Amino acid sequence: MDDPAFAIETDLQTQSILLASANHDIPALRNLLHNTSANVQDPETGFTPLHAAIAALEPGPAEQSQESSKQVNGHANGENAEEVSEERKQELEAAAKTVRLLFQNGAIWNDLDGNGETPGCIAYRLGLKELYELCVDAGVRAELLLSRLDEYQPLGDQDSDEEEEEEEGEGTEDSIGNNEEQSTAANADIEEKVGEGDESTLNPNYLNSRLTFDRNRILDGSANGVMMDWETKLMRRSAGLLLPSSGLRVLNVGHGMGIIDGIFQAKGPSSHHIIEAHPDVLECMKEQGWYDKPGVTVHEGKWQDIVPGLVEKRELFDAIYFDTFAEEYKALREFFTEHVIGLLDPAGGKDRDGGRFGFFNGMGADRQVCYDVYNKIVEIDLFEAGFDTEWEIIPIPDLDSEGEWEGVRRKYWVLDKYKLPTCSFIG
Ligand SMILES: C[S@@+](CC[C@H](N)C(=O)[O-])C[C@H]1O[C@@H](n2cnc3c(N)ncnc32)[C@H](O)[C@@H]1O
User: Fold this and answer.
1) pLDDT of 193-218, one tens digit each?
2) Domains recognised in the chain with CATH numbers
3) 381 lines ligand 1 (CB under 6 A)
4) What is its main location (predicted)?
5) Which is the closest atom of ligand 1 to the Cα of 278?
6) Residues 401-419: pLDDT tens digits?
């Protein structure tokens, strides 16, 4: 690496591949990809070839002012407008071909540039739907592959689970809980409410931290938002869909501020089980009389330790809600793939066609492209686990302008639409 000639050569290759990508020059790009990685990054802008290919479609200042003067002076006659749109169409097609070629050659979907944007973020910002979808689909393929590889154990691998757990701490944790070395990728963005590589939001650290209870939120010891009042609308809708009438049996995993449990209680369930692991939340529940409410059973501990006992006792529920904190997607997937089957009554109470399962759907919600990738993955995983899922879109107001994030370490929600899932067994 100390050889200056080598450094110049590398820099030249990087600039050539970025230029070919920005020009959507497929033959040149094909050539360069023989001996240059599709994942080089410009040292100044942080652009990868994918960023360059997509950002090249951003109208320059000249085009922007031309457009606005056309609009102001009313000069956009039909012919001219058609010429422009035909030219634009060709540009978009060339860009899509370039992006496809880069993905075929191993381009990483979620590398960040100097502005903290992934290629998909740029496509989204510029309203380039086709390119955006290409990025989302590449993200889904990559993340599904990584999660399947994570499950895969080579034949003859005699490692014990303990050894595996030790090893898990070593690599960079990827977005949906797999270990993968990827330098600047927006990997851990597909996490829920927690930040990438942030030790404070590992579940054991969270469970040992002291919580602060405000009127309208719970923060952990590092000022991460555990639960916030703005989510009430989402809890109310989920509770309504999961528990439409009184006299049903409900299980809620993760009490938090008790918002959804309060709504469940008000519906008069015949039994209401709550699993909660944090000692401060449990303390608060005692003070608020939760242990004595009608039909309520509080299980103190992590769901991972409690659920096997419930299954053993053959406790069945008509509705189950899952909303924990500082856990990876892997945990949610494990819950619905392995445990809901033993807990949810396929009959689901009187006048119903089966039990319902819901969860807080907040993974990757600090970046639209990550939310869209994650949503496609969760839909596939739910289907594979035997669930039909109905999605409802709920608009979310601008939380920034409402001052919701003041004093909170990290905005875990920046999007304007929430996708609310309600799942039932297929068939
Ligand atoms: C986001 S809050 C739940 C908010 C709740 N849905 C409401 O309406 O207020 C998450 C809760 O899950 C709890 N939790 C985190 N990890 C857990 C685990 N492994 N098992 C059980 N509870 C857990 C946290 O202590 C916290 O109280």
Assistant:
1) 666 667 777 899 999 999 999 989 99
2) 4-143 (1.25.40.20), 203-425 (3.40.50.150)
3) no
4) cytoplasm
5) 25
6) 999 999 999 999 999 999 9
